[in-house]
Amino acid sequence: MSDNILEERARRFLSALRHCQVLGIAVHDASAAGLTLRLPYSTQIIGNPETGVIHGGAITTLMDTTCGISTVCVLPEFEICPTLDLRIDYMRPAEPHKDVYGFAECYRVTENVIFTRGYAYQDNPDEPIAHVVGAFMRMGKGSPKLDVAKKPEVAQ
C-alpha cells in the first residue's frame, strides 16, 4: 500500500474523532514504518498556567490516538481496534509554546491483538517527552466499522 493511501486513511480516521478535532491533532506523516501526528500548542491545553506546560492528558490523548491509528499502517483493510492497554512513561515536560509530535509503530500483529510502541517529542525525536506501548484489540473486518473510504460527517 502506498504512503499516500496510508496517509489518507489515517486522516479520515482522525477526522472522525471529535476530541482530536477540538485539540487540533493532525496527521504529520503516515507510512508502512509508522504514523506521526502533531498536537499544536494551545492555551486551551495548558496544565500549569504559571509555566505554560501542556497538560499530561493532552499528551496521553495524542499518544493513544497515534498508537490506535497506526494500525491502519499495517492492516490491509480497516478494522476498529479499541485500546486494551496503554502505558506511557513521561520522561520530561513538554516545552511551552511548541507543538508536540507523536510517533507510533505496530511491531506485532496477531489474530486478536496489535502491539504498538512509540514516543512523543518536540524538536528532536532523539529527545522524547514520553515513551508509550499499547495493545489494541482487533474487532475484525465484519464488525461495525468506520468507513475510511468516504469522508465522515462531523457532528455539530
Write structural notes for this entry.
The structure is a single chain. By secondary structure, the chain is an alpha+beta fold. The protein has a single domain, classed as Thiol Ester Dehydrase, Chain A, CATH 3.10.129.10. The chain contains three helices and eight strands, in the order ααββββαββββ. It has helices at about 5-15, 20-25, 55-70, and strands at about 25-30, 35-40, 45-50, 55, 85-90, 100-110, 115-120, 130-135. It has a six-stranded antiparallel sheet with strand order 1-2-6-7-8-5. Strand 3 and strand 4 (about 55) form a beta hairpin. The protein is globular. The protein starts with a helix and ends in a 19-residue tail after the last strand. Residues about 145-155 have low confidence and may be disordered.
Overall mean confidence score, pLDDT: 88
Named at the architecture level, the CATH assignment is: Roll
In whole angstroms, the N-to-C terminal distance is 33 Å
Do you know the CATH topology? Thiol Ester Dehydrase, Chain A
Q: Judging from the principal axes of the Cα atoms, what is the shape?
A: globular
Give descriptors for this structure.
PaaI family thioesterase; 3 helices; HotDog_dom_sf; hydrolase; alpha+beta; six-stranded antiparallel sheet; Thiol Ester Dehydrase, Chain A; two-stranded antiparallel ribbon; 156 residues; disordered C terminus; 21% helix
Brief summary of the model shown:
The protein is 21% helix and 33% strand.
